[in-house]
Design goal:
single chain, alpha+beta, FAD/NAD(P)-binding domain, D-Amino Acid Oxidase, Chain A, domain 2, Helicase, Ruva Protein, domain 3, 3 domains, ten-stranded mixed sheet, eight-stranded mixed sheet, 15 helices, about 30% helix, about 25% strand, globular
Length: about 500
């Protein structure tokens, strides 16, 4: 991976400019570079800094889509889940689920077994089974026992959503694609009724430049409307906020994913072990006019989540004070007028005009399908964007470090001369060398890039990882050239952001 380029170093023209560095934009970039096109991706903040680092981090078919009759979406999602397990092993990993069945619960065991049988058939592999109450408690002893009749066990998958985005981006960069974070599209350029390129503003260096493009694809999610010069045509969006809580596994000792229906509104919620912690969520609420770049969990959401958690795990006596951190993201859902936010479809929607395609909505799991669909549409105007056939899966499953950072990182770490690079960052699944590699090779511009997306230390450790910041500072000075003044600025900026967006600071949390 090359250092982050300056605007002046870019070619004057690309076949394709992609706006948006989340999972949708990264998938389009990856597929377009595979097809042999010259591509530039720009993101106005950091890569994956929006919804794509704040999802539930599950790669799943979506059992509830079956209930809503969305058969095609479920089939597509299950197949993509299986493909990602094959092609992104070590980054996308199998996640066993347990769904307890209680007396009087609807849907009951029989309906659940039918639904899971269909789910398994779609995936081409039998992954589900019924359990007795005793078997369920043997697997998860902390479950609510009153009225427990048994459970169904099935399998989906989990990932680190930000790292999945980053792998797509950096692989495309290694194959010749150009990528820039902290670069804003200040205007969409048109001539003779056709979009011809974009005007860019580098928010780090301050430079401005116009870039010509054969095609521009707007994949900016909840930011996909309102660009100066935007040719229009976008559907009405309904931004939905999903909030999550992170607990130490010592406080919430789940061994697999547990999914159940919230006692208040029968919405599916879940908790599962992720990166050495317990990840619990999620809400699904209208975000309204709130800033999608800075979503924050509300006290009502925290109360809702804790109500659901304590109903399922009453003997643990959990309070908000037991949580380590929170996070939330805003889903770019296409509005269809439904009263219930959760009833809105997770299907993607596209719109186009000469030289321009917009895409929004969709799911983390189906990013590749979305990318292929968008590029197929774009190829009608610019044939060089015709997507290739699906790449064959990797023959072996790489280890954790290679899956997240690539083989070059593994080789570099093996020969690193820095003392401590192969030692664990206390309380996390990371080694110090991962931070050094990311600082050197992964376009880190700010401290939150490093601690909230290149790694997830800021979510996993109390107070955003303040106890390890001295070690982080040494790496940032050596690899990024930050002096004492810059480090102090970045530390202050990061901790302020963490307090606003990730701290547990609600009534009842202390």
């Amino acid at each position: 991976m090359s250092p982050r380029p300056a605007l002046a170093d870019l070619p004057a023209r690309f076949d394709l400019v992609v706006i948006g560095g989340g999972i949708t934009g990264a998938g389009i970039l990856h597929e377009a570079v595979r097809a042999g096109a010259s591509v530039l991706l720009v993101e106005q903040n950091d890569f994956a800094s929006g919804t794509s680092s704040a999802s539930s981090k599950l790669v799943h078919g979506g059992l509830r889509y079956l209930k809503d009759g969305q058969w095609r979406l479920t089939m597509e999602s299950v197949r993509e889940r299986n493909r990602l397990l094959r092609s992104r092993g070590g980054l996308v990993e199998l996640q066993p689920f347990l769904m307890p069945i209680y007396q009087g619960m609807k849907p009951g065991r029989a309906v659940m077994r039918i639904g899971l049988a269909i789910y398994d058939l779609m995936g081409g592999q039998w992954r589900s089974r019924s359990l007795s109450a005793a078997q369920a408690l043997q697997l998860e002893p902390q479950l609510r026992r009153e009225g427990l009749m048994g459970a169904v066990a099935y399998e989906d998958a989990r990932t680190d959503d930000a790292r999945l985005v980053l792998r797509l981006i950096f692989e495309a960069q290694e194959a010749g694609g150009r990528t820039l974070n902290y670069v804003r599209v200040s205007e969409v350029l048109k001539a003779d009724g056709r979009v011809r390129g974009v005007a860019l503003h580098d928010l780090i260096g301050g430079e401005r430049r116009e870039i010509e493009a054969g095609m521009v694809i707007n994949a900016a999610g909840v930011w996909s409307t309102g660009l100066p010069g935007d040719p229009g045509g976008a559907p009405t969006l309904r931004p939905l906020r999903g909030s999550h809580l992170i607990f130490p596994l010592a406080k919430l000792p789940v061994k697999r994913a547990v999914s159940w229906l919230h006692v208040r509104d029968r919405r599916p919620i879940f908790v599962y072990p992720w990166e050495g912690v317990a990840l619990f969520g999620t809400t699904d609420l209208d975000h309204g006019d709130g800033d999608p770049a800075r979503p924050e969990m509300t006290a009502d959401e925290a109360q809702y989540l804790m109500e659901g958690l304590n109903h399922q795990f009453p003997d643990l006596g959990l309070t908000l004070a037991d949580a380590t951190s929170s996070y939330c993201g805003v889903r770019p859902i296409v509005a269809s007028g439904k009263d219930d936010p959760s009833a809105e479809s997770r299907e993607s929607a596209s719109w186009s005009s000469p030289g321009w395609i917009g895409i929004t909505g969709g799911k983390l799991t189906t990013f590749r399908v979305t990318a292929v669909q968008v590029l197929t549409l774009a190829a009608k105007q610019l044939p060089v964007l015709t997507p290739l056939a699906e790449a064959p899966p990797a023959p072996t499953i790489p280890g954790r470090l290679q899956a997240r950072h690539g083989p070059e990182c593994v080789a570099w770490l093996a020969r690193s001369a820095w003392a401590g690079d192969r030692e664990d960052v206390p309380g996390t699944p990371y080694v110090w060398g991962e931070l050094r590699w990311a600082a050197r090779h992964e376009a880190v511009m700010h401290l939150d890039d490093l601690l909230l997306r290149r790694t997830r230390i800021g979510l996993l450790l109390p107070q955003g990882g303040v106890t390890v910041l001295e070690g982080v500072a040494a790496i940032c000075r050596e690899e990024l050239g930050w002096d004492e003044v810059r480090w102090a600025q970045e530390r202050s900026r990061y901790l302020d952001l963490w307090r606003r967006r990730h701290a547990i600071d609600f009534p009842g949390s202390v």
